[in-house]
């Protein structure tokens, strides 16, 4: 009984940890989007469209991570 | 090497920087030497393989990560770790790619990004440059032939340093030649 309670508590702690991490990470990934936009202004070269795409993709996948954490756990 | 991913590019095509004049021509486009990226590439590889490595080590005890953690938690853990690994790689790559040093027929430009919120754009006209020194020191720099080029100027930004650039002696030589040419024209 005690072991079961301890396991539930541990899983709750892990769940809260994953929630916090995924939210903080989504904020970070949005900062990366803004950063790429700023970086692209510093000089132009043909890879810049790709970087912008990857930064937005990264942001949307981090939003997906939040959804996963909140719905799956 | 193309202008896209090179670290020492003479007269790159299709590259324009913020504030470049119409008649201004880029003579050298530099980034830090490829080898300085080895630390974060190694860390990325470790992050990529950390769960298989952990599983391998737990295997000696007859268990694995998926056995000690419920399936959905294990899935989320792998998902988040893959995301962090990509984010770490992407952030470091962007930092290397966009921290660049440009020598034109009019000036030297140093574009620096610190973290994800700071940008510094320093420049010095060639006619204001008073002294250039290059410095190669340490095992890595000697083996791979990269180092710092310090440019002393009479302008507001007293010193511009091109850090860890490949062939610092050739950079110094190129900038010196350009200065001689500009000063020769003005006399």
Outline:
With 73 residues, chain A is mostly helical. Chain A has helices at 2-42, 48-72; one strand spanning 43-44. The model of chain A has no long low-confidence stretch (mean pLDDT 89).
Overall description:
The complex is a heterodimer of chains A (73) and B (187). Chain A has helices at residues 2-42, 48-72; one strand at 43-44. In chain A, α1 (2-42) runs antiparallel to α2. Chain A starts with a helix and ends with a helix. The model of chain A has no long low-confidence stretch (mean pLDDT 89). Chain A has two helices and one strand, in the order αβα. Chain A is mainly alpha-helical and 73 residues long. The two termini of chain B are 38 Å apart. The radius of gyration of chain B is 22 Å and the shape is elongated. In chain B, 42% of the residues lie in helices and 29% in strands. Chain B has helices spanning 38-59, 65-68, 71-98, 139-144, 168-186; strands spanning 8-10, 16-17, 26-31, 100-104, 107-114, 118-125, 129-135, 146-153, 159-166. Classes of the chains: A mainly alpha (73), B alpha+beta (187). The A-B interface holds A 11, 14-15, 18, 21-22, 25, 28-29, 31-32, 35-36, 38-39, 41-47, 51, 54-55, 58, 61-62, 65, 68-69, 72-73 and B 3-5, 14-18, 70, 72-73, 75-77, 79-80, 83-84, 86-87, 90-91, 94, 97-98, 100, 102, 111, 113, 116-117, 119, 121.
Order of helices and strands of chain B: EEEHHHEEEEHEEH
In the predicted model, the low-confidence regions of chain A spanning at least 5 consecutive residues are: none
The major β-sheet of chain A equals: none
| Class of secondary structure makeup of chain B | alpha+beta
Give the integer mean of the pLDDT values of chain A.
89
Discrete helix count of chain B = 5
* Oligomeric category: heterodimer
Count of runs of 4 or more consecutive helical residues of chain A: 2
So what's the overall shape of chain B?
Answer: elongated
The radius of gyration computed from the alpha-carbon positions of chain B, rounded to a whole number of angstroms, is 22 Å
Low-confidence stretches of chain B: none
DSSP strand count of chain B: 9
- What percent of the residues of chain A sit in helical stretches (DSSP H or I)? over 70%
Roughly how much helix do the residues of chain B carry, as a percent range? 40-55%
Using DSSP, what is the number of strands of chain A?
1
Average pLDDT rating of chain B: 89
If you compute it from the alpha carbons, what radius of gyration of chain A comes out, rounded to the nearest whole angstrom? 18 Å
- Arrangement of strands in the largest sheet of chain B: 1-3-4-5-6
Q: What distance separates the N and C termini of chain B?
A: 38 Å
């Amino acid at each position: 009984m005690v072991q079961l309670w301890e396991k539930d508590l541990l899983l709750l702690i892990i769940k809260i940890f994953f929630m916090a991490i995924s939210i903080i990470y989504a904020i970070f990934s949005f900062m990366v989007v803004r950063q790429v936009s700023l970086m692209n202004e510093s000089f132009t070269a043909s890879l810049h469209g790709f970087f912008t795409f990857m930064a937005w993709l990264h942001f949307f996948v981090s939003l997906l991570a939040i959804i996963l954490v909140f719905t799956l756990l | 090497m193309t202008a896209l991913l090179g670290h020492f590019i003479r007269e790159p095509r299709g590259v324009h920087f913020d504030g470049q004049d119409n008649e201004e021509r880029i003579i050298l486009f530099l980034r830090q030497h490829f080898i300085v990226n080895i630390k974060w590439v190694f860390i990325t590889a470790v992050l990529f393989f950390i769960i298989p490595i952990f599983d391998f080590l737990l295997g000696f005890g007859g268990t694995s990560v998926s056995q000690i953690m419920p399936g959905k938690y294990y899935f989320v853990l792998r998902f988040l770790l893959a995301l962090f690994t990509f984010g770490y790689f992407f952030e470091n790559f962007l930092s290397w790619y966009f921290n660049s040093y440009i020598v034109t027929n009019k000036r030297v430009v140093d574009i620096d990004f610190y973290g994800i919120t700071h940008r510094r754009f320093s420049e010095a006209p060639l006619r204001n440059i008073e002294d250039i020194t290059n410095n190669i020191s340490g095992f890595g720099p000697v083996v791979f032939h990269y180092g710092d080029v310090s440019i002393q100027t009479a302008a507001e930004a007293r010193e511009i340093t091109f850090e860890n650039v490949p062939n610092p002696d050739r950079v110094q030589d190129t900038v010196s030649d350009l200065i001689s040419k500009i000063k020769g024209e003005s006399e």
